[in-house]
Design goal:
The chain is 39% helix and 17% strand. The chain is α/β, with parallel strands linked by helices. It has two domains: 4-74 and 331-447, Alpha-Beta Complex (Aspartate Aminotransferase, domain 1); 77-327, Type I PLP-dependent aspartate aminotransferase-like (Major domain) (Aspartate Aminotransferase, domain 2, 3-Layer(aba) Sandwich), CATH 3.40.640. α10 links the parallel β11 (237-241) and β12 (264-268). It is globular, with a radius of gyration of 22 Å.
């Protein structure tokens, strides 16, 4: 019997060769942590719609979708046309331009809390900026985040505490910086008030509003409402990290879906139509801290500076404005969410037929897979059932890596091996082919006794 690993090697010799070269250039031979895959990652040559082709000519149904940025699929013709036209006009003016105004208006029309906004060059920059704004506004230093929630890789929000040390640890981050970060478990609404009451120096609470790791571990119903209530009562800024959820879980993001408005919102990915960029949007009284005034003392001592060479660059503005105009129509979500439902229901049927432990679940067009444990499967729809307060756990990295390899052998690529993103380019035939590939991959994992 040919193993998953043996077949993977035989299907991707050119990727193996390129990775051999890359190992002499990049740490681990990759340029992003989640692109690491043993024994070597996939190298892609081109992409169109919901498919991509690797350097060995293999055709793959894609669910990485630009790490969640490509709600409209690869190379949407309207976005390609807008970017192509803008390239001929200029890629970087070093000046204000009309497209940045139109782009901001598009964001403001869709995101309910966006009274004012400022563009950045990435999602990590957006969360960094939101924290600084919150600290400047409140005059306080400390930040609360939820365990497992990811907000980029800058010093302020990276690291986790250990059992014997409440101060989060991360290599390269000064301990003095980490002392300003408080990490609490998610979904414990009763813990929110004592946390804020015990420390008068808390400036902000930041969350992924659908749960840790783009919703892999969902937030329980009512948790966001409780969080909004307690932060308002204690004068603490509430920050939604909607880098992934913004414009995807609804045209107005998670805040519109759940009708809970934060003070500040971090955006990127879908907002930029597949090109680099990000933004912080929120309350006008907080965002005005960036404004210059006719007051030298304010400008030198109180105003929050914010430069950025590629903020609102014309190419991203062209792609973002075009993409958000399509998102605003509403048909995008009906289609992508419907295809996600079809996918998750099919994956769960496959697991039942194989008598394999695990489940698939989703929110909007974001789906997750948990193998190796007996979980309740969604019965009425695709969302996690929250039966008895049970929460899913992340698949062990080794198991997720094997699933990713096994599915690549069948012509499907997952985001990190444990889920992915559906776009408007995915149709019924693509979904059905993915379900068949998933069933074949899981069956192979059973034959190799990787899972039961």
């Amino acid at each position: 019997m040919t193993t998953i690993l043996e077949r993977y090697r035989s299907l991707h010799p050119r990727s193996a060769q390129l990775h051999s070269e890359a190992r002499g250039l990049f740490p681990d031979g990759v340029t992003h942590d989640t692109r690491r895959l043993l024994p070597f990652p996939l190298y892609v040559r081109e992409a169109q719609g919901c498919r991509k082709w690797d350097v060995d000519g293999n055709e793959i149904i894609d669910y990485v979708m630009g790490h969640g940025a490509l709600l409209l699929g690869h190379c949407h013709p309207d976005i390609v046309a807008a970017v192509r036209e803008q390239v001929g006009r200029g890629t970087h003016y070093g000046a204000c331009h009309e497209l940045e105004v139109r782009w901001a208006q598009s964001v403001q029309r869709l995101i309910p809390s966006a009274q004012r906004l400022r563009f950045t060059s990435s999602g990590t920059e957006a969360t960094h900026m939101a924290l600084r704004l919150a600290r400047a506004y409140t005059g306080k230093d400390r930040v609360v985040k939820l365990e497992g929630h990811f907000h980029g890789w800058h010093d302020n929000l990276i690291g986790t505490p250990t059992a014997d040390d409440p101060v989060p640890r991360a290599p390269g981050v000064p301990r003095s910086t980490s002392r300003n970060l408080i990490v609490i478990p998610p979904n414990d609404a009763a813990l929110l008030e004592p946390t804020l009451a015990a420390d008068s120096d808390i400036a902000a609470v930041i969350v992924e509003p659908t749960g840790a790791s783009w919703g892999t571990i969902p937030l329980a119903p009512g948790y966001l409402e409780a969080l909004r209530d307690v932060t308002q009562r204690y004068g603490v800024a509430l920050i939604f990290d909607e880098v992934i959820t913004g414009f995807r879980v609804s045209p107005g993001g998670a805040q519109a879906r759940y009708n809970v408005l934060p003070d500040l919102t971090c955006l990127a990915k879908v907002m930029c139509g597949g090109l680099p960029g990000g933004a912080v949007a929120g309350r006008a009284d907080i965002m005005t801290l960036i404004e210059f005034r006719d007051d030298p003392e304010w400008n030198s001592s109180h105003r929050m500076a914010h430069p950025g060479t590629f903020n609102a660059n014309p190419l991203s503005a062209a792609a973002g404005t075009t993409g958000l105009a399509i998102v605003a129509q509403g048909d995008v979500h009906r289609h992508a969410d419907g295809m996600t439902r079809r996918l998750v229901e099919g994956m769960n049927r496959a697991l039942e037929e194989l008598r394999a432990s695990g489940c698939a679940y989703a929110l909007a067009s974001i789906f997750h897979i948990a193998l190796g444990q007996d979980y309740p499967r969604p019965r009425d729809g695709v969302e996690w059932p929250f039966e008895g307060g049970l929460l899913p756990s992340r698949m062990p990295p080794q198991l997720a890596m094997i699933l990713k390899r096994a599915l690549l052998n069948e012509g499907v690529d997952l985001m990190g091996g444990s889920g992915g993103f559906v776009s408007i380019a995915h149709g019924p035939a693509d979904i059905d082919a993915t379900i068949s590939a998933f069933q074949a991959a899981v069956a192979q994992m059973q034959r190799e006794r990787i899972i039961q």
